[in-house]
Design a protein that fits this description.
The protein is of the alpha/beta class. The longest helix has 21 residues.
Length: 652
């Protein structure tokens, strides 16, 4: 019946119209996620006359208009062509796609002395590829074998010099019983298009080049398909749901300790009174202060590219929220940035959050891996990235105990931007596949800011005293700092020890424990008097002041003790020319410490720390020698490249 309808006349026109209308309905109502390799992006949206071959399996032919529409939104002048056979199926495809701005080149390989238009099609393809167009081909068409790339695509790439972009696609669909098991999309579902890195075949064996292209299309197709639901993933979600009442009690306990805000506690359960702004919205999550500082340049670059874009930033700590509030108040783009506290990893709470904010793309930073959050984004069709990704050996070993859960979670990331090759290797060992190593955002960040008036006040407050700084200390570490202080004070009675705790809300407790009466606190506006041993600088976002004012810096979270591990970023004080020491725990920034090498003293305990500080205070020439030349800022274009990739994931 269908064949008779498609044979000609009004019946054929009616059938073509119905098929086209159905495909428009199905494809337009599908919520698509686009995972475009960074190297493929300039090839798919060329603005310099370049051409490319876009290769996908015949079974996904009906889904590819989604990619054409995506590319056309970025460059309305882009010309797109698709190679089809001269048979009835090819003519039907040509008629269906005609209104969509896709030109058809008809022809296939001549066989058994039958002219199938292969030579003419080849000439047409080469003409278009020489004219800055995209040309789509199905290397296993028109008759198979299924998912077997013929050598013709490699020959066409060699003749034209155009790269081949492997493409995989999937959406909610049903399959035909044809040789290729073609996918027919169903309306109102989710879909994914994955474009791999371009392939440029070299002269030589065409069959081997075709095999490489086929393998790349297979990889893209596999990446586009959803992974089956895992028992561990369901168990994790069930466990989080069951302990949700206990998490409410935990939030109230944190509130009593000053680690939550009373008026915004409901945000941790996915509830908010703030409306979602109209237009596109990109969500970035940064757990604490360091991560928040690293993504600020990315946010700035994204907002500069689109004056209508809004960015939602979530954090897990009050200190990071305070920092962002100040930075956004001072920035020209602050009005288009919204801060919320991230909901805990409970499926119901995450679901509320996503239904309200409906982000067009999401990005987690560093090691913020939350299975329920990532799963919820995947199910909602929200493309998600992991930027500045880091994974210590200890964390990798922990995830290996639930390797199936880790592999499933990492498979949902459309892009993972690892900060180092070592982090990338650890992530790949857990099953991550779409991993790049663009660099470390913290290296690309500018020096920490400092208000000149405030800096002059600090310098005046510590003038004429031997002074050293313990920066970003953690709970229990201040007692070790106090032991070092007593040892140093034996030779420098007028010593002042400046302590900047990582979490300022601990300032009052630290001041009371270290001295009687309590040590002066900067949060209360106090400055140290001549008899004060310690100055507790429990304010947020002022490390740039102290790294400039105090040349001898110890980096906290690095001395052995309960709850401490990994250190903090040494590049921040290094960039301002300090003399640096750290405890032996540096796992969080292995590469940065390795780059600085012997310029950072590693001290094992308070006695070794005291010896180091005493040596610098006693010998000004040694201090001048040990002060680092201002460490260079990393790749200044890195935030812009990451911003561009996130906007691509958001559908720009």
């Amino acid at each position: 019946m269908l064949k008779r309808l498609l044979a000609g006349g009004r019946g054929r026109a009616l059938a073509i119209g119905m098929l086209r209308s159905y495909l428009v309905l199905a494809l337009r109502t599908t919520r698509w996620t686009f995972d475009i390799h960074p190297d493929a992006l300039p090839v798919l949206t060329p603005r310099d006359g370049r051409s490319a071959l876009v290769a996908f399996w015949h079974e996904t032919l009906v889904l590819t208009p989604a990619l054409w529409w995506w590319a056309a939104r970025r460059d309305p002048a882009l010309r797109m062509h698709v190679l089809v056979s001269r048979n009835r199926d090819g003519r039907m495809i040509a008629d269906i796609v005609a209104p969509w701005g896709v030109d058809v080149i008809a022809g296939s390989t001549d066989r058994k002395n039958r002219n199938k238009g292969g030579a003419a099609a080849l000439r047409g393809l080469l003409d278009q590829l020489g004219d800055g167009s995209l040309v789509a081909v199905t290397p296993d068409g028109p008759r198979g074998p299924r998912r077997h790339a013929q050598s013709g695509i490699a020959g066409l790439a060699l003749l034209s010099g155009a790269p081949v972009v492997p493409v995989g696609a999937w959406c909610r669909s049903w399959r035909l019983g044809t040789w290729d098991r073609m996918l027919i999309p169903l309306p109102f579902g989710r879909g994914r298009v994955v474009c791999g890195a371009p392939i440029t075949p070299s002269r030589g064996d065409r069959a081997e080049a075709a095999r490489r292209i086929g393998d790349a299309i297979d990889a893209a197709t596999d990446a586009a398909c959803p992974t089956p639901a895992g028992m561990l993933s369901r168990l994790w979600a069930l466990l989080a749901t069951l302990i949700a009442p206990a998490l409410v009690l935990l939030l109230r306990r944190r509130l009593a300790r000053g680690k939550e805000r009373r008026d915004r506690l409901r945000e941790r359960m996915g509830l908010t009174a703030r409306p979602r702004p109209a237009g596109r919205l990109v969500w970035l999550h940064a757990a604490s202060v360091g991560e928040s500082l690293s993504i600020l340049p990315v946010i700035e670059r994204m907002l500069a590219r689109d004056a209508t874009l809004h960015v939602l930033v979530t954090t897990a700590t009050v200190t990071a929220a305070d920092l962002l509030d100040r930075r956004m108040a001072d920035a020209a783009w602050g009005g288009r940035t919204i801060h919320q506290f991230v909901p805990l990893d409970v499926p119901r709470w995450i679901g509320r959050f996503l239904r309200h904010w409906r982000p067009d793309a999401a990005a987690l930073t560093e090691s913020e891996l939350w299975p329920n959050l990532v799963e919820a984004c995947h199910r909602a069709g929200i493309p998600i990235a992991l930027v500045n990704a880091r994974l210590s050996d200890r964390s990798r070993d922990g995830w290996r105990r639930v390797s199936g859960l880790a592999q499933r979670m990492l498979s949902h990331f459309g892009w993972i931007a690892a900060r180092s090759a070592e982090d990338a290797a650890r992530l790949r060992a857990l099953g991550a596949t779409r991993v790049d190593v663009p660099g470390d955002l913290k290296d690309a960040a500018p020096p920490l800011p400092a208000d000149p008036v405030q800096l002059a006040g600090i310098v005046g407050a510590i003038a004429d005293r031997p002074v050293w700084l313990a920066a970003s200390t953690h709970d229990g570490e201040e007692e070790l700092i106090a032991r070092a202080d007593r040892l140093i004070r034996a030779r420098h009675p007028n010593l002042l020890t400046v302590i900047v705790p990582r979490h300022p809300e601990r300032g009052a407790d630290i001041a009371a424990r270290l001295d009687t009466p309590p040590a002066p606190r900067r949060a209360l506006g106090a400055t140290p008097g001549p008899a004060d041993r310690f100055w507790i600088c429990d304010t947020m976002g002022e490390l740039g002041l102290f790294y400039r004012a105090v040349p001898i810096v110890f980096i906290g979270n690095s001395l052995p003790g309960p709850g401490r591990r990994g250190g903090h970023n040494p590049m921040e004080p290094a960039r301002l020319g300090a003399a640096l020491a750290s405890g032996p725990l540096t796992d969080n920034f292995t590469e940065a410490f390795a780059r600085l090498g012997d310029a950072v003293a590693i001290v094992a305990d308070p006695a070794a720390l005291a010896d180091w500080v005493d040596g610098l205070l006693s010998d000004p020439a040694r201090l001048a020698q040990d002060r680092l030349p201002a460490a260079p800022v990393g790749d200044p274009d890195l935030p812009d490249r990451i911003a561009a990739r996130l906007l691509t994931m958001a559908g720009y």
